[in-house]
Amino acid sequence: MKRREEIRIRDPFIYTDREAGCYYMYGTTDFVSENSPLTARRFTVYRSLDLENFDDGKTIFDGEKNGFWGTMNYWAPEMHKYRGKYYLFATFKSEDRHRGTQILVSDAPDGEFRPISDGPATPHEWECLDGTLFIDGDVPYMVFSHEWTEIKDGAICAVRLSDDLSRTIGEPVTLFHASDNASVTELHAGSGNYVTDGPFLYREDGKIKMIWSSFEHGRYLVIGAYADTLTGKWTHTPSLFDFNGGHAMIFESLSGERMISLHSPNHAGLERAVFHKI
User: What is the pLDDT of residues 40-73, one digit of tens each?
Assistant: First the structure.
């Protein structure tokens, strides 16, 4: 068993399994060394009954074992149950392919995941990351980050998915850019670079709401936005949760409490999963 504070993790994503009475925690965990930002070519899930004590972890995807195209940047897996199956949205990159979000599928939340397409669901010619699933009515969409590393002012975009999530339908739509939020400042002064990380969407008060992460004077924060429709006008809010961390998501505990999950602090080697009631 491992205590929560013993697990180095970025981008922690929690799936509450009410039938089994447990939680599954996914995230960027398989670092090549204690303080390195580099990751091995695999994903691990941790199971817990109380969000404080976790099992030793189980490999759910091994890119080296199956000859997968991604050779680096195994980042931010998040797991969504959809139409009776379990889908992993995760970031990958290789020496000759752009960074992007690939969708994988399994029959169990801790089963062996396999790709459902030959490549990422994000545009192959773009640098992207942090794809997430959002169901608008009965229509599945992937919302993702178009990276500042390519376009400088990072963007949050959306693209429609087929009903089985195996392909995209139509072209991506840009929802907004990082600099549209007045709280966001340049990654480094004078660089012109503005970051969009980790979008997560939910419905509340008749609105579509989003939390995402960026930097404000060097501090990594969770900020917000809301809209009447997915591709409509987004209104931006300042920092919602100042935990010196980010890449957050919202989940409901087994006891019905609304919780936020994120990593903090945002420093290589020190990152841990942090959960707060909201």
Answer: 999 999 999 999 999 999 999 999 988 899 999 9
Q: What does pTM read for this prediction?
A: 0.97
User: Which of these, 226, 254, 257, 256, lies nearest to 240 by C-alpha position?
Assistant: 226
Instruction: Residue 156: give the domain boundaries.
Output: 2-277
- With a CB cutoff of 8 Å and minimum separation 6, the contacts of 141 are 133, 134, 135, 158, 159, 160, 161, 230
Residue with tokens 């995230």: 27
∠254-105-64 over CA atoms, to 5°? Answer: 115
CATH number at residue 44: 2.115.10.20
Position 85, amino acid: K
H or E segment at 149? helix 148-151
Element (H, E) at 150: helix 148-151
Long-range contacts of 112-121 (CB under 8 A, 24+ apart): 112/60, 112/61, 113/43, 113/60, 113/61, 113/86, 113/88, 114/66, 115/68, 116/87, 116/164, 116/165, 116/166, 117/166, 117/167, 119/69, 120/92, 121/159, 121/161, 121/165, 121/167, 121/168
Domain count, the chain: 1
